Amino acid sequence: MSIKESQIPRDLLERMLDQEPGLKKTEKGYAVEETIAFELLLKGGGGSPAPLAKVGSMELFDGFMRVTCLDSTYTLPYSVIVGLKTASRVEKSKVGAGFLR
């Protein structure tokens, strides 16, 4: 199945989000803790996923979700979500030279 054909239904997305370390369930959705960098992967025009970076929180509704990033808010149907990306935030002073993150 190609990315153009795939989509994540809301119930599957919620199960995936529940398993992600660094996400805290809220009344309407999820909040991203400061210990991680979280991205939603969206359907991209060329068949590759397009990351929606610096996600801070997500609210889930019937048929769509509202995603708040660093300085923008996006309202998206679930049909454009194809994956999740999580990375640990490491202070640069704790990482050796040549291994900056």
Could you walk me through the main structural features you see in this protein, from its secondary elements to its overall organization?
The protein has 101 residues and is mainly beta. It has one domain. It contains one helix and eight strands; from the N terminus they run αββββββββ. It has one helix at residues 10-19; strands at residues 23-25, 29-32, 36-42, 50-52, 55-60, 64-69, 73-77, 81-88. A five-stranded antiparallel β-sheet has the order 1-2-5-6-7, with helices on one face. β5 (55-60) and β6 (64-69) form a beta hairpin. It is globular and about 35 Å long. The relative contact order is 0.23.
Write the layout of secondary structure elements.
Blueprint: H1 10-19, E1 23-25, E2 29-32, E3 36-42, E4 50-52, E5 55-60, E6 64-69, E7 73-77, E8 81-88
Antiparallel strand pairs: 1-2, 2-5, 3-4, 3-8, 5-6, 6-7
